[in-house]
Every structure is written in structure tokens, then in C-alpha cells.
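Pasting as-is:
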Amino acid sequence: MRPYLDFLSQLAENNSKEWMDANKKWYLECKAEFLEDVSVVLKGLAEREPVFEAFKPKDCVFRQNRDVRFSENKNPYKTNFAAYFSPKGKKSEGPGYYLHVQPGQSFIGGGIWMPMGETLKKIRKEIDYSGSELKKIENDPKFKKTFGEIQGEKLKTSPRDYDIDHEFIEYLKLKSFTVTIPLKDQSINNGQFITLALECFNTMRPFQDFLTKAVEEVEDGSGIL
């Protein structure tokens, strides 16, 4: 049994520095176990994507403290455990795999969430050129059964420089490019979420490859981007 969900439920009800200080030992035990599970995920990822061999669990796990400077919510701590697995690191704008553990709200995800302007332009440019490839990925039977459609907030109209009648306008209107699948609390408690995460990450890998190709600046033979 994982201790995460009980701890996170209690934290949600007692989100204060005083409570966290009084339960620091419990928090550290839960964090250590989550890091151990993340190390298993990393090992599984590295078998298919060697770039992850260089990562340690702490490189992927987000800190528990919230940045409250610009938020109306002044609760000091996040009420979830989360990890982001990206070849460029957890602070990268590039695509990655995401694991979110929270009572009743756990999920597996991946892609790019709300990229900055220049990155978004690159993705849209790739869709303009190779939208049929993205459509093929989305329509793959296993991908479709697992994730459904590619998700994200959309513009109400076409983005600048793209016609509303563009063949792939629904992709072009996206402001995020993500896929998700919910996790039951039971799968967290019994540890099955690790296997599920690795299976889902493998299924979404072509989607990640498409986004990676879009955002990376690769030099051609002439040395010009």
C-alpha cells in the first residue's frame, strides 16, 4: 500500500506550515516512496529512450511548495505529487510524460501544455506541413482507445496566417497539445499505476516524437536553421 493518498488527503484539509512541520516525518516517508516509484518509471522509460538513463528521480519530481506570489490561493503546499519526464528536464518547454497523484484526481498525461509563443508557432508550422501525420497518430486504434482525442484549450477562430478552411484547422486552433488518462485511487495504492504509466507513455511516444520534431531546431547540411 502506498501512503500517498492518505497523506495528501490530510494535507488538503490542513494546508499550513504548522501542520506540515508537525508531520514532516510522514511527508518525508511519502516523498521517499514516491521517488522510489519514479525511479522505476525512469528505468522503464530508459529501456526505450536511453536519454532518460542520465536522470535521477529528483530531476523529475516537482517541489511541494507552491509559488503563491501571483495567486489568490495562498495555501503554501500542493496537494498532489507530480513528476514530469522530458529529455530536456522538468522545466523544459519541450514535450514530456506526466504523472499526477492526487486523491480522486490522479492521471497520466503527456505532450506540451500552454507553450510560449515561439514554441506554439513551431508546432503550428509542423501541423501546417505534416498535419496528416498528426491525424494518423491520433487515429491509431490503440492511441484512440487509450486517450481519445488530442486535448487543449482552443482559439475561437483560426490563428494568424492560417485560413479557417485549412484541412487541419482544429489542430491549428489548439493552444495546448496534450493527452490524458485518469487513474483510480486503487491503482495508486496497489502500485499498478507504474505499469499503466509505462504502457501509456509507450502508446503516446509517436505523439511525443511529432512534438519534439516540431519544437527542436535542427540544422540542415548548410548549417542554416
